[in-house]
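FORM 7B - TANDEM STRUCTURE REPORT

SECTION 1: FIRST PROTEIN
SEQUENCE AND TOKENS:
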Amino acid sequence: LFKAVSEDLPDGMASEKSAPAPEEEVSQSRRGAVSFEPDAAPQIKIDEDEADALQAEASKSPRGAEPDAVHGQRRARTLPTEHLTYSSNKARSGSSARAALLWKKGRTVLNDKEARIALAERNESGHIIVDWLIRTKNRTKGGCVRTVKDWFREKLNSTYASVEQAKTSMNYLERDRLQGYLFEAIVIECKKRGIYKRTAIQALRDVAIQVREFKRAGMLLRVDVANWCFRDKLREGAVKTVVEPYSERQKEAEDFWNFFQQQARPPFANSYVVSEYKPLPIAPIGAWFGSSSGRKAWPRGLDDDDHQSRPTSPGSILGGDKGRMFFSGDPAWPMTMTSKPGTSLGQLRYQREGLMLSRELNAGGRKAAASRGSPIHKSASLPGLSRPMPLVGNPGGKCSLDRRPVTSGMAIGGGQPLPPLLAGRRKYIKECELRKTMPKPRSFVAGRSKQLLAMDGGLMDSELLSIAALLQEWPSLEEVSLQNNALLTDRGMAPFLRELQGFPVCNSLRSLKLGRCKSVGLLTVDAIIQLVHVAGNLKFLDLNSIQIATKLHLPLATAIGEHPYLENVWLAETGLGSGSGTTRECLSRCFASMTLKDLDLSWNCLARDDMQHLGLALNGSKSIRKLTIDNCATCSVPGADTSVDEFIETLSRNTNLETLSMQMNRIGWETALVVEDSLSFNSSLTTLDLSQNPLGKVGVRNLLRLVCRSSNKIRHFETDGCFTGGDDTQGDNDTPIYSFTNPGGRYVLDLSRAYCRSLLRMLHKYTARFQLPLDQVFVNIEYSLGQWKHLVNPGFGKIWEVPHQGVLSITFSLEAELDAVFFGNVPESDFLAFLEKYYTTVRFRMGWDKVTPLLAKWRQMEGNAMQQEVYLAAISKDFRVSIPQLENMCKASRAMTNQTIGYLLPTIPDTGSSRYMAMMMFPQLEDFLSSYAAMESLLTFNVQNPNGHYLLDLGSGSDYAVAQRLLLLDRWENVINKRLGRIDISARGNRSHFRNETHQGRALRLRVNSVAEWSMPEFDQFEFDYSSSWRRPEDAEALTDALWERILIDMYNSPCRPRDKLKVLRQISHNIYISSLHMRQLLGYFQDADDRAEALVIYIQRVVDPQNSKLFEVRFTCSEERQGLKHRLGFVTVFPFWQPENQKFDLDLNCNDQRIVGTLLVKLSLVEKRGNIRDVTYTHADGTPDPMTMGVPMAWGDKMPVGGRFTATYCCSGDDRQFKERKKLAMSHGYQKVEAIQEHEVQWWTGLSEVPEDVLELLEFFISRVPNMDEAFRIMDNCGAGSGEVSLRALETGLAQMQCHKFPEPDGKARIGGLFRFLDSGGEGTITRKEWDILGQLWKEFSMTIREFVQFMIFAFGPRLEDAWQALDEDGGGEVSEEEWMVAVEKIGYFGPARVVFALLDNTDDGCISYDEFEVLERYRPESLKHR
């Protein structure tokens, strides 16, 4: 079926389609049914008949059948469904297992060994682990010829050196197998009885189609992410401009240095007409400066003979190539060279450089070329350059060139005037000589660029002054870039800038970049201000790291604000702020510009008021598109906001800003919430950079929530270096943490802080999202400035106006939301459906327009494990992740696959298929096993039956997810209870289902009134008990005795540890209901008292006959065990509504539920008989005992006093029992659905530990003498008046006539008197038949105890009790003492009342049991086992 619907899967799934494993089939074991998605709604379960139907359906499909090479016929093959199921049971039929193995082998016949393995795997039932292992095993070489257990054991031995690790992993397997066996048996019976519906094939087909769509979505998502990453690189300039090849740069340098040589030679008379040109060979660019062979001022590596025979490059001389040139650190600039016939070299160079020769030179060149008929005449040549002309030395040691003044009209050799290019170049060389500076072949100096680019950091004042001399010769200057030249001072920079102020240079200037010229001073800044005023076309101004005097701040800001074209201004690290009183005025004047688009104010110290003014000025500007304020926030103290918070809060009103950078501003997780609040509905911002801020996982989570919102346009964000911070402060109760998934809790907000104001806005936005009434959501309000008025909803996307003063204490209640949004939309008792609905509604989903940027960011983090882990921790709390998204993240960072699945497992849907597919993403068995332990708490958590004890590490993603689910369930159950009008039976009167909750070892009740008011942190241990108010439906049906017997046998045969068996019982508990008798048998299975208590906690609400709960309650004979259960489940929950007789109560009246129990006792006694409450003691809260002279006050039937301790015992005669009143209390206080239960359905019971020892002695005597207790009562009655009531004298006479020697003198009569008073529970002086029934109840308890023991022996040793006796009598002595008996029964695994059984079998009271006495057990063989 899966193959039929997945023929068109992407190529990436070819391996999954081509090699299905035998366990990847849909069919079912002959032993029973398999369940798909056991915890999903609806559940998909198929049995044997449905599996056959599925096989037949697959056989009919043309795509499901292929030719058989062996038999020459078409044979249907079993179809793989490796991603279809969250298989709680992977049992498979023999035919389907055979077909699946043939599919893998490519043939139709199995050999004997393969058939045996297939038959064994047919019976392999399990959960995710078993299925994962089978899949992995069959993909390994030789895996198909070994069983799962053998293969797994070998794998563990080869993988783990530690025996303990291997043992733990094997326990996982055994537990999973046990769960599969039990669930298989349950599904079989439930389908036979019609409890589970049969599964239609269409349901499986729909699941297969869903999986196919998951795969397609994953493939498309990977393509989108890859495209986004490429576009992001282009946007950031990651694709660098191609730099000109080295050879081209070398040729340009040759040109400059040849001209330099020409200037060192005597003038020549020839006109400047070139016929041949042979440039000098030149050393590499890096060797231009320095000396070689003792020669000064010449490029290194140049010898006298190096230049003689170097051929000319046509590409560089005649313009055959088009390329990019690069000189001495300048960025590459484009220079296109073209050549045409008839063009001289001089004309070619001038055309390329954009210069014009004089008309005479152009005309002469054209005429000469035309007369000669060729572009260059051979006879017209430059003077020979075989050797460079030596420099003329002078006494001062200076290198002298021609010292005549150079002008643009000066002729070469007395001939034609020099062109502007050559004149400027010569002037630059002369200026360098005058200032003793080595000339550099810069593009601007060479005349090939309108940009002066000198960002190499080596520029000095003398060279800059030499360049300044060219500005009038070269008036078309568009850009000046002098960044990183820390050696420049006012001596060179100020004159240079004054030269730029001249006309026409100032009009052509577009960009002035002086960043990081840190040595310039006041004169330079003043010149800059003047230049900004006169350079009317200036668009870019970079003054980064130039310290500007305070008195010049306002003039500079004024010049910037009044400039008509200035668009980019960089003022980083210029001394703005720093306590200056003019900072706010400077900001106002800068933002007054109508053209300013990019402003950089980084590394300036801006105080809180400055930041706030900056935000207001920014909102007033309509032109600013990019703002950079890196490292501008002033220092802050712990618990206080940083100055940048005030600026961020004002961004909520901004509508123009597109790019914002706030790196290194001490933005923590609190400020990140302000960012989320302010930018949630921003319609313009697209890029946000918060790198190098201590966000931590909480802050990153706030940022990711912001990015995921569809109400803003943020697509690009940076969080590099933000993986630290945030975790240390989460324990501070004065700083509440906002959780989007569960925002309920108690908040104390200082409204003078931006964080608290933003948190209050977030809460109001949450209420507006679900249209909740504020007066129902915000409760228990306290405001320091008087009465609080709820904020007015401004509408979607508008700003909530919050006061800036006062302290507000509120409780944000989720119950109003749950009641309004979810109640009625999901079944009340379906906790899984509620959580799925809640998470789907509340949690963030990565929308189609935001998921690609987020996943692209994850891909870019590859290799940064710390940042990736914080990213995962941030996503794991408030987000909803789909299977394709999870798969994409795993494949994008394979090294983080284990952590990715571990963190994000709580974010995927809780449906079985989603979890199954997530588990299949582990690449190797070792990864699966190592990660399983961390995820175990969530994987084994049964949301449909949450009762239990929990010890959770909130730092673990899975443990935190379990705690969060229980917090939500607690609120949901509270909503249901209120709707149904139920009484509050919580421990502290807060309607909470959490009990005994502690965090960090401290009781939470000392900090908060309820766990619902607690903002749950993400660290340390959280320990508590959860007692659900869910009760079984009235029409629930218990498992049959035969099925329960099989479950117990499977558990007994399993090698799992008891605690692992309890986990299995918890996971299957929501699928079954049991009877009180089943519960009693289950409790006898566990030796440890804690294990017994856990079993009771798991199944106590799934007992179909709560009126008979005393059958299993009597198994808890220790008062400490009973008291512990009451504290775990609640005193009212375990209150014996139906049979409170002989129960002792010890109540702390400080607790709400214990006061209710006291009230129930008083109410019941007032209805039945006031004297039923006996042995009463009451101690006041101050420790003073109350004598209770008048007995228990009747007023306590309505309300018990608060404080103190109350103890009592309830006794009631059968004649006084009021069944209807007990049933009413069970329904009203116990929430039990028992309207249809009648009195005759109650099995009245008494435990052996409830009665005095003398009563048990009397019972043993009657058991050996009479067939039943009715006969014993008749005998006693006949010894009296025969009135149907037994007096004390009649009892004494009857026992004497029956020759009872259990009560010898001298205290025999006193003992019989005490026995009589116990049986006379009504206190009338006679024992009625109903009061005598207590002995009959004890007899039934005796008989059941023996019968359970016999049943266990048959399970353990078979139907022959002789085999059991041989195991008990290890020494073969023929007798077993009591000590030997206790050791032997514990050894074989029986943990019931073994001492009671021994006392019953020891008829001779000699302390030993013989085989003859042991044979009495044959009479107690259960009816269902008598045929064995």
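SECTION 2: SECOND PROTEIN
SEQUENCE AND TOKENS:
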Amino acid sequence: LPAKLSSQGACVKLLWFDRPSPKYGLVKIDIEGKGSTYGFFTKKSINTKQFMTEVSDVIWKNKKYTMINAELVDANSKIPYIVTQLWVIGDNRQGFSPPPDILNDWKKVVPVMSTDQFSLNYRAYEEIERRFQDECSKLAQKCIDESKSVASGKTTENSSAQSQNHQKTWKPALKDTICKVERLLGSSYGIAYGYQIILNEQKRYFVLFDLCDVYADKKLVVHTGIKSLKQLNITKGDSVRVNAVLHDTEANSWGLRYIATAAVHGKKEATPASLPAEASALDSSAELKPGKIDNFKAVLGQLMKKFPEPPVDPNPPPPPVVSQTSEASDNSNNKNPSEMRSSSKYSKDRKDSSYNRQNNSSSRYQDNRRNFTAMNMKNTAKRQDIIKNKPELYKELKLMEILRSGLYFYDCKACGIQGMTIDDAEDHVGSEDHKKSKAQREAVLSQQGSNETRRFQDRSDADEALFLNENKSISVEERNGVKYYACADCDAKRMPLASAKKHVMSQAHKKRDKNRIDRAVLDSESRDMRKVTKKGIVYFCQPCAFQTESIIKNKEHIIDPQHKLLTPLFCHVCKMFSHNKNQLSDHRFSISHKKKMLELEEQCRNPIKAKNNTVKEAAKNSDSSEPKSKDKDRKETQKEDKPEDEEEKNKLSCKYCNSSFKDENEKRDHEDTASHIRRVFLATGQMSRSAMDGFSLDGKKGTDVEMILIRKGKDIEEEAAREGTLHASQDIKQRREELINKVFDAGLFIQQEVKTKVKCRTCKTMLSGKEKSMTRQLLMHFLSDKHFNKLKVQIKAEAATGIDRDEAERIQEEEDARLAAEAALNAPLHGDEDTAEGNDNLEPDASASVVVPPPSAEQVPVPDESASIDDIIAYLSKRPDVNSMYGDKLFSCPQCCTGLVPAQQLRAHIVSESHEKGITPEREWRQFVDLDDVFEHGQYFKCLPCNTSLLMQSELEQHLEMGEHMHRSIDENKNQTILNSLPVIAPECSSCKSCFASQLDLSIHERHNHKKEIEFTADQVENLKSLSQSRNLTLKPSIMSARGRVLQVFPDSNLGILQLPQEGNQYINVLFDLSRLKMPKTKRTLAESVRVGYPVLVNCVAMEPNDTAGYSANLYYYASAVTIGDEDEHSLMPVSFHSLRDSIGITAFEDNQKMSRNALGVQLEQCAQGLQTPLLHTFPDALENEAGLVVLKNQSCVLIKILSSGAYAIQILENVLVTEISHDTSSETFEVGQSVVINCLLVDPSLPTQYLVTGCWISFPRESIQREMLTLAIVDMFHTVVKSFCMEPDMFALLDFSNIVIPGDFSGGLGFDDIAVGSDIALAPHGSNDDIGIADDTTTPEEKVPEEPLGFKKIKLGF
């Protein structure tokens, strides 16, 4: 179907009278080549010039000249289109726009309209159909009277009665309905049954009623002291009057569908009393309490386990009665008796059914098909009767029995007949043809021998045996010929086979199953353990020193607990251990591991033969007839005997380093050394991926870095070659760009003033190329043989002298400077006579002055703390180990890999112990990130090209890998952007010089540590109570297993706040500390462990005393258990407040309360100033189907303004998982200015951008995502993206085309696609010729008209 329809002709087919004044309707759309379909329209989508009070004022059924615009919503729906505009030709207004909420109307109304049984349309249809059926009944009755047949009269009367009933499905509610009691379930529940006529067929249903709903003498019996249904003398067959509602549940053999809301008991023959007026009579199950539905499901589950099959229907539907004419009677009497015996009784039923359909063809609504449920019940009853009364017959039928979709069918393999019912199978087993075929089959099987006979005569038996063999915890028992299955691990009993198969696949069973073996994991690990030897393929486990040729023994070894203990983090393919599961997972997806796997697969496909076998075969197949001497024979014999010894020696030696070793461990340690890796690189030009992954960089030898980068570059080119495409993919291009950036960062390439010129430090040559293909050209040179040979020379020189390349270059520069100084001292003070030209007294040239080497860092005195800023800058400028950036505004220490800091902070760093220690283990991460354009503020960082807010270390590392950052890092105006952002103002405590990421954290720190604690005033207490987010909630003493999110983490402490969303946009705030937290990879501090917005599962208890003025209204609970990640690890143990306080410590607990009280006071003050605060915000926890407008889009995110509230949300475009199974939040693309619909979750209310988009669309709606399904990585990425690019969302104004200047001569026909095409002429204000370079406008009007419009540069749209 087309996605959109524009100006399409349509025909109005329905105005839906679900109310007196209809609002909705349907149109029929004829699509050329596709057929007809339907579209849904609302009153709001009608475009008319007339005044419209009702839809019928403008349009009606089959209205002519009707046109529509429509969009496709769901191609699988009966009503796939939604009409955005409907008008009658000549009666439409210009500028009409469709309503924004029309999609919500389609979602709400179309499902109800499809199942309509209550509107005026349906009632009118019922009345018309009833009249039609009355006329048909009268006509049929007239035919009956004429035939004067009693049987035909009964049939017609029955047909007339049935034809008046057109119920198509189960009634949604039963009111004042009499049923029969089937059985009692314990003391509180009972089951009753009744009948409904559906599609002219009688169907039985069951109703569940309980003691709480039974009335006696107009009162509930539970109020009279009765505690059991047995006390009311309720027995099977008694009448009961009920009110009940239909509850949609999974199909069950009982047909238990209704839940009673009121019941009155009566005896078998007596009619039950009427229900009292106050008895509950609901219209749908949606009005039921959740607890009643849960009880219904629990009772249904127990009923199905105890009684899998329902009782036999005491009132089965009567078979159709047909009139038998004399001709039919004669035909039956003239039949051959043998034919009558061979025909099944069901053949008669089929003939009767066929005759009945022919006889009742006058009625289009009579359908005599067999009902699925009735057939199932009938076959089940027949099967149970055979099991009890004819065990020998069932023994033979059991071999033929197959269960399909809840029905038993029978396949006869001897005769090749399939799909028989039990009645047909019973007739077939007794036939002579079956007995002959069975005897022949048994004779053939007996001739094949005992070894070739089948173990299982029936496929179901084989399936059952395989199922029991694979699930050792399942046992089987047989009762009354029926097999039941039980699970020992889960204590589940009396399950049918289908239920047992579902049970073993459930998560509850998998957690309890002690003998569960994942076959896929076994096969995968067995493949990884393969090894090719002289004998062929064996299975080798290095940690366990185990080897076998049998895959069965290998799998038994894998199951061994000792093997599981030694190898949870071991890769059998690469023969290496990982530090943790995450590292092992990353390794399995690495290129090195994949290449090892490919090599192993290739070896296993073509296993090598043993060397001695090869030598023997060569000697046998030799065609040489020359006699060999005894010495030669002896030498060859010795050669055949020696290979094993030589191979053992080669295994424990290194041919590249000429070294031998005692054992494999010593050799493995040697292969990990840097010297061995360099020698292998020199000899082969290759570096193994394992060596590259484990290579340790000390930050001194640049050749080590270059070797690794060359290896990575070759991997990229090999992967590009495997793709086999004409142009490289975007991923390959991005990885090439990243590699070249790392080459520049390592100082191997040096950018010159001209963009297209780069100096190669290794080759000492200047490279020049084209700007567009510069990355590709540089990479080709970097991986070329010429560059590699130069690198080999330098590596050999380092090995020979023991001096690395950087040190050698420094020594060479000092030597050159010394030689230049000596040459200057020995040079003459006067110039040549020829050049003097008569000047006898020439002064010495300034260029010939003595070159004095710069002083070392130790020779420059350090200024005092009280020195002026100019003195500090002058001092730093003299030090050779300090980099000065951006006009001496920022400085860095390359020795310690610091970021950019002001002069005072770098002076303090130079005199500190951290500068003396250099790169410590805690600072090693700095060697692997680019901090050249990063401002450092204590433990926080700010990227100057992106003008981010202050980031933590993990956020900075994420930011530096983002596509938008890489784009801005190569911007031509990067330096000017950085200069405009200086000076950087960062929050810092004036008392203790501590650094903070936000002004809120600084205010909390100062109030808690440097100011005297002040109690809240009366006005502040009232404000705190009125602003409390839980002011309308009734708070319990404790809360268990509640879901929420992290709201705030306090500075300089391991204390934070959780927020639990409640109904009505209210929240409960809970204090928690690091000791209560349980999550994977917990770090040293709470701020490093969690991020605001993490989903949590929490237990909490009310703090005492809980009447502190103002404080308790906002912070009432303290967490006793907080779980992030695996919710199965969450503690369910209740903890009292006093036990919790004692475990934390009274002093520490009081300090935590003091910190939270100070934070609450600071946020109250900021709230009074109109600033956003975490504790006193008013944002909803989740938004669904919200309209928004795209205001910003870059390579990392899309910023969307929520129109209803003015809040902001971001859609993350970086490659990160939103849930464990998906990283996609939309299947569409959006541009700035487009209106979209979003689902989003609140992450951090204190940030200017508060929401994370979990679904975004224009045409294709997406399901909402619950917070507990989010990954922690998407929350981390949210904070990084918001702090990087979305801290000032209000600066991006809405798109306004009035800001775009268009020449008046071409405004009528100029398209926006021509912007930035072909010309360098810039736009200037009207009447100005500045910076344009053209003369005054003195041309004639004829000369003003050009042949084609002038081009434009890109115009920035005033954002």
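SECTION 3: OBSERVATIONS ON SECOND PROTEIN
DSSP finds 44 helices and 43 strands in the chain.
The first helix runs from residue 102 to 114.

SECTION 4: SIGNATURE
Preparer initials: ____
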